[in-house]
Design goal:
about 230 residues, Glycosyltransferase family 2 protein, alpha/beta, seven-stranded mixed sheet, single chain
């Protein structure tokens, strides 16, 4: 199977080259799609320099959000399996074989990489982020009737034919609860596997904040109860 990796990027000039090299070094990766979401720090120029036979670089003229960047990337992905990869070095591409194994084994259509079940390591950081994440995952599970431990995780792998059945509407971080709600209605096989996680601080460039938590809450209710 061909594996496509979609990397949404916004103002990550210090890490885009590093993450691109890390993804490219994984021998099971067939295609890399970098979507620069209107960066203002020169990331887009750096990203364009990474384009090659394996890597396609797409540019948004203005910043629209992670969901919008993923929507663009998914539309252009050609692999049989599509994986989401953030550009901030919190998630290690060496985890791809573990992440996609349930799909390759014919057991799963979608796999979530959980930061809260057994992985190799996890950086210890913000308590209230964990509380917020756990609350959002719990509420999402109550409405989807799933038993995920980490709905908000970046690492999600999809069979492309399943991903093509989902229309992403949210432009920002609401992508996570939106796609979870929509997948739950497709009656697809969802698996979860533990992954390693090296979270970063706000001083190191972390972007998600409390406003995004309220947006996620809105999306959980919207896509589970009113769609």
């Amino acid at each position: 199977m061909r594996l496509s990796v979609v990397i949404p990027v916004y103002n990550e000039k210090d890490t885009i080259t590093v993450i691109h090299q890390a993804v490219k070094s994984i021998d099971i990766v067939s295609e890399i799609i970098v979507v620069d979401d209107g960066s203002t720090d020169g990331t887009g120029v750096i990203a364009q320099g990474l384009a090659d036979d394996m890597t396609r670089v797409l540019l948004h003229e203005q910043n629209m959000g992670k969901g919008a960047a993923l929507r663009t990337g998914f539309r252009h992905a050609t692999g049989d399996i599509v994986v989401v990869q953030d550009a901030d070095l919190e998630y290690d591409p060496a985890q791809y074989p573990k992440l996609i194994r349930p799909i390759l084994d014919g057991k799963a259509d979608v796999v979530y990489g959980s930061r809260f079940v057994s992985g190799d390591y996890r950086r210890v950081l913000y308590f209230w982020h964990m509380v917020g994440n756990s609350f959002l995952t719990l509420l999402s599970n109550m409405l989807t009737n799933l038993n995920l431990t980490d709905m908000e995780t970046c690492y999600k792998a999809f069979r492309k034919e399943v991903l093509d059945q989902v229309v992403i509407e949210e432009n920002r971080f609401g992508f996570e609860p939106e796609i979870t709600a929509k997948l739950s209605k497709l009656n697809v096989r969802i698996y979860e596997t533990g992954i390693s996680y090296s979270g970063r601080t706000y001083q190191e460039g972390k972007k998600i904040g409390w406003k995004d938590g309220f947006s996620a809450l809105r999306c959980i209710l919207k896509y589970n109860l009113f769609r």
